[in-house]
Design a protein that fits this description.
This protein is an alpha/beta fold and 406 residues long. It has two domains: 6-67 and 92-179, Rossmann fold; 187-358, Argininosuccinate synthetase, chain A, domain 2 (Alpha-Beta Complex), CATH 3.90.1260. It is built from twelve helices and 14 strands. The chain has a five-stranded parallel beta sheet, with helices on both faces. A five-stranded antiparallel beta sheet has the order 10-9-8-13-14. Strands 6-7-12-11 form a four-stranded antiparallel beta sheet, with no helix packed on it. α5 (125-136) links the parallel β4 (114-116) and β5. It starts with 5 loop residues before the first strand and ends with a helix.
């Protein structure tokens, strides 16, 4: 292979990528350009810049992608009501295609001949990053240190960091810090005690949410306005996408909403236990399904539900940029043209409870037909007899045949 002259590293400033920064320069003898995506992790940004400067990095990119992240990735995903394996709201998965996209853009800008990431050889993120790289720049060279070096555990990484004077957040005397990933949609935790799926997470681990036991004893109500499937206002105040999610995170976190302890099936084949906090996303999903319940045609809604697991798996497995995901998104977005109105939810001790929904322009709920009271002839109940007999026809035929055989 030709020598690498310049590589763009997806750099969080955490343990893994801080070690990788030093390792790339030592092993590949190349110039390293760091790229840190600001997608809502907040406090990680300036330490990342400081660490990069400390090691003599000349080109440091810290890009504010929060609005693009929510507008072009999170919101489209929530239009599909996407959840993986019935529980996971895909907080890590949906951030990777945006990071890959911007990383390739920077590689073109600085004329780099390679890109690098800090995903391990056991995880999903290596697939997500690299499928994105190749979809957007098919001939790019990819360096994945976890598949090359002999630093095969987090303890070895900590030792390497200590030897080379690399500062590590949350360094503890008894073992490694959690492996964490944060963005505007969620924060995830892996490692340490979580590697035993029988053990309950430490309460001190959680960062965004209070425990339901310590949440307020008084419920809080929210009115969420939707336009074409996206939340555009909270309690009557119009907000841009990133601010919507930020606001819902704060409100949900205060009420202990959005904690998840999950054993999931990774794309590479193993089972993995992780914990997640997704307060705003949990509220969004519940509210979005509520507004769809009165605005979507029955068969359209059921078709969406049929397609959702496939769509969610595409995102989880790293196929955001695939033609099949784009095709599904086109269908999903078309269904959202009528998803307009408002939803009222009640937040209380870890629960999101829908208590009202309405659409002045697109509601298919007709109270004159649905009523238990006099419907003034809007619905002829006698019509149901023929409907039921026709739908029972195949079962009646089968039952008669069974009776003849007995």
């Amino acid at each position: 292979m030709s020598k690498v002259k310049k590589v763009v590293l997806a750099y969080s400033g955490g343990l893994d990528t801080s070690v990788i920064l030093k390792w790339l320069r030592d092993v590949y003898q190349c110039e390293v350009v760091t790229f840190t995506a600001d997608i809502g992790q907040g406090e990680e940004l300036e330490p990342a810049r400081a660490k990069a400067k400390q090691f003599g990095v000349k080109e440091i990119f810290i890009d504010d992608l929060r609005e693009e992240f929510v507008r072009d990735f999170v919101f489209p995903m929530f239009r599909a009501n996407a959840i993986y394996e019935g529980e996971y709201l895909l907080g890590t998965s949906i951030a990777r295609p945006l990071i890959a996209k911007r990383q390739i853009e920077i590689a073109r800008k600085v004329k780099a001949d390679a890109v690098a990431h800090g995903a391990t050889g056991k995880g999903n993120d290596q697939v997500r990053f690299e499928l994105g790289y190749y979809a957007l720049e098919p001939n790019i060279r990819v360096i994945a240190p976890w598949r090359e070096w002999d630093l095969t555990s987090r303890e070895k990484l900590l030792a390497y960091a200590e030897t080379h004077g690399i500062p590590v957040e949350m360094k503890k005397k008894k073992g490694s810090p959690y492996s964490m990933d944060a963005n505007l949609l969620h924060i995830s935790y892996e490692g340490r005690i979580l590697e035993d799926p029988a053990k309950e997470p430490e309460e001190s681990m959680w960062r965004w949410t209070v425990s339901p036991e310590k949440a307020p004893n008084r419920a809080e109500y929210l009115d969420l306005a939707f336009r074409k499937g996206d939340i555009v206002a909270v309690n009557g105040k119009k907000l841009p996408p990133a601010k919507v999610l930020e606001t819902l995170n704060q409100l949900g976190g205060r009420h202990g909403i959005g904690r998840l302890d999950l054993v999931e099936n990774r794309f590479v084949g193993m089972k993995s236990r992780g914990c997640y906090e997704t307060p705003g996303g949990t509220i969004m999903l519940k509210a979005h399904r509520a507004i769809e319940s009165i605005t979507l045609d029955r068969e359209v809604a059921h078709l969406k539900d049929d397609l959702m697991p496939r769509y969610a798996a595409l995102i989880y497995n790293g196929y955001w940029w695939s033609p099949e995901r784009v095709a599904l998104q086109t269908l999903i977005d078309q269904t959202q043209q009528v998803v307009n109105g408002w939803v009222r939810v009640k937040l209380y001790k870890g629960n999101v409870i829908v208590v009202g929904r309405d659409s002045k322009t697109d509601s298919l709920f007709d109270p004159t037909i649905a009523t238990f009271e006099e419907d003034q002839g809007a619905y002829n109940q006698a019509d149901a007899a023929g409907f039921i007999r026709l739908n029972a026809l195949r079962m009646r035929i089968a039952a008669n045949l069974k009776r003849k055989k007995s």
